[in-house]
Amino acid sequence: MTELQGKLTVTFFFVVLVSLVLSVLILGGKKNLSERTGCRLDISERPATFLVIDQSDPFERGDSERIAETTRDIIDSLVTDEKLVALEIDPEAPYSPKVLFERCAPKRESDLNWWLDNVIQARAATTKFSHDFDEATRIAFQAHDFPISPILQAIAYVSQRADFKIRIAQ
Fold this sequence. Notes:
Elements: H1 3-28, E1 48-53, H2 63-77, E2 83-88, E3 98-104, H3 119-137, H4 151-159
């Protein structure tokens, strides 16, 4: 084998090796996600946060601002792929609250791998998650005049959902 053939062979194997590594990194990073919730399908148990919106009592001054601040804190505290479910109590059907929002949180910026993850796309996903939550719950956070407070029925409904698990420390 000549010196040129040897160099070409080494270069060919190097190119094949780099191609294989890049293919694994690019294709291996794709996660199978639910179209409806954005949740990864390969996770059997995930944390979930349920936000039950009860509008049976009228808002007092400052309530809207406190609600907005509290929901921002909740969204900021979600871990990657934690499910957030927002339910609005319907006094006409207290055992079936209306699901306003049900999605899994996108990857947190602190969890991003700056070499493998698309940071711009991850930031856009976080912004979209917050925007979609705000849009879905905007009307529910406005004042309503309901005759009763069916909060206990809504809590009973949440406890019967398949994605709600109660763990009691022993």
